[in-house]
Amino acid sequence: MRVLVVGAGPAGSLTALLLARCGHEVVLVDRSTFPRDKACGDVVGPLALSVLERVGVPLPGDAHRIGSMWLGFDGDEMLMPARPGLGHRGYGLTIRRKDFDDILYRQAISEGAESRVGVVGAVQRRGNRLRVHLDGVDEGFDVVVGADGANSAVARAMGMVDPDRVLFGFALRRHVSGSTRTDRVDLLLEGREMVTPGYGWVFDQGSDQLNLGIGVGVGAQRARAKGARELLDRYEQDLVDRNIITTVGTHQEMGGWLKMGLVGTRVAAEGVYLVGDAAGLVNPLQGEGIAAALTSASLCAAVIDRWGANGDAAYRRAIDQHFREFLTTGYTIQRVALGHPKATRVAMRSLVRLGRRSERLASGWGIFWNDLTAYSGRQPGARAAKLALGLGQGVTSLTPARPSWRD
Ligand SMILES: Cc1cc2nc3c(=O)[nH]c(=O)nc-3n(C[C@H](O)[C@H](O)[C@H](O)COP(=O)(O)OP(=O)(O)OC[C@H]3O[C@@H](n4cnc5c(N)ncnc54)[C@H](O)[C@@H]3O)c2cc1C
Q1: 353 and 72 in contact (C-beta within 8 Å)?
Q2: Which fold has domain 2-67+86-165+260-327?
Q3: Cα of 110 from ligand 1 centre, angstroms
Q4: 3-state secondary structure of 85
Q5: How far is the CA of 69 from the centre of ligand 1 (A)?
Q6: Is the CB of 113 under 6 A from ligand 1?
Q7: Which residues contact 163 (CB under 8 A, 6 or more apart)?
Q8: For residue range 153-204, what is the model confidence (pLDDT) as tens digits?
Q9: What crossing angle do the helices spanning 382-398 and 312-339 adopt, rounded to 10°?
Q10: How far is 299 from 344, CA to CA, in rounded Å?
Q11: Nearest partner of 273 among 144, 157, 150, judged by Cα
C-alpha cells in the first residue's frame, strides 16, 4: 500500500514509522527541513513515554524529569503529587521539541519511510486513488494521513473540519536561561478578572534552562488570542517578583495553536485519516497533546495496516473509545468556564484552598486534569478523579451544545 503522511511532528513520524515497519511504502512529507523547532512546553508526559517505550523509540537517558507540580491561583497554591499508575511511571521528561521531534523523524526514516520536504495543498479522491497536490505536482496514493497540526491543510481540503465549531487555544512559550524553585502551572488573573480559560507554566529543563509560557482558550474566535504576549510578560514578571524564578539574558519566543476537545472535526473520511492536533486531540484543560498524538498514531497505523483505505469507521470507533470520555468533559468544562467566569473563579479558588489541606483532593485533580484517570490504578486521589470525570460526563450529557464526537 502507498501511504502519504503529511507532517512529521510526533503524530506523523510515529504513524510513518509503524507503517514502514509493517512493510508499507510510506512517504513522510513536511514543509520544514528537520531538525525544526515547534512551540511547546517541551513536556513529554507519562503516557507519551509509555507509548514510546512500547514501540521502541529510545529517548536521551539524561533528559530532565518532571513529576509533581504546583497549581497556583490567586495567591494560593497546592501541590499535585505525581505517582506511577497503570502502564506509566508517573513522570514526564522535558526535551526540547527540536530534539524530540528529530529523534522520532530520524527513526521513521531509518525504519524505511521516505522523507520529503514540501507543502501539501489539495487532496482529492478520484476513483480508488487519492490525488495529492505536493509542491506543484499531482501524485497518487492509496491512503493519506493528515498529521499536519492544528491548522491541517489535509482536513480543510477534504472538508473534515467545521471552522465555526472547532475549539481552539493559543499558547506562547519562552526559552529562558535561569532557574526556578518549582515546576508549576498557574491559573491566571488579569487584575481581579480570571482569564478563562487560561494558565501559565514554568518548567525546569535542567542545565539552568526554563520553559515558561501561557495558554488561553479562544473557542472558534481566534482573534481572542491577541494580547497573549502582554499576558506572558506580566506572568513572567509576577514569577520574578515572587522569587519563583530568576532569569538571565534574553529569551526565545514561539507561539502556536492548539486544537482541542475533538470538536468540529471528522477524524476519517474516504481513506484520509487525521492524527494528533489535526484531529483536535489536545487536552482542553491543560494543553497537553503529544501523548494523544502518539496514541492516535498507533491506532491509525493499526487501522491502516488492517483496513487500508476502508478503515474510516474502525478508526472513528478507536478514537472514540480512547478519547471521547475525557475530551468531551474537558470541552464542557471549557465552555462553562468561558460562560461563567465568576463562578469558575470561586470554584478554582475553593479547589486550590481545599487541595492545600487534602492531598487526596490535590492528587485527584492532578490525575483528572492530566487525563490519567483511566490509568491511575489504586492510589490516593484515584476515586476523586473518577468522581470528577463521572460528574463531568453527567453535565456533558445535559449540555444542549455537547460536542458531537461522531462528526
Ligand atoms: C506553546 C505550546 C505549548 C505546548 N506544550 C505542550 C507540552 O508541554 N506537552 C505536550 O504534550 N503538548 C504540548 N503542546 C501541544 C503539542 O505541541 C501538540 O499537541 C503536538 O505538537 C501535536 O503533534 P502533531 O504531530 O499532531 O503536530 P505538530 O507537532 O504540529 O506537527 C505538524 C507538522 O506538520 C507540518 N505541516 C503543517 N502543514 C503542512 C503542509 N501543508 N504540508 C507539509 N507539512 C505540513 C509542520 O511543519 C509540522 O512539522 C503545546 C502546544 C503549544 C502551542
Answers
A1: no
A2: FAD/NAD(P)-binding domain (3.50.50)
A3: 22
A4: strand
A5: 24
A6: no
A7: 220, 264
A8: 999 999 999 988 888 999 999 999 999 988 999 998 776 666 767 899 999 9
A9: 90
A10: 35
A11: 144
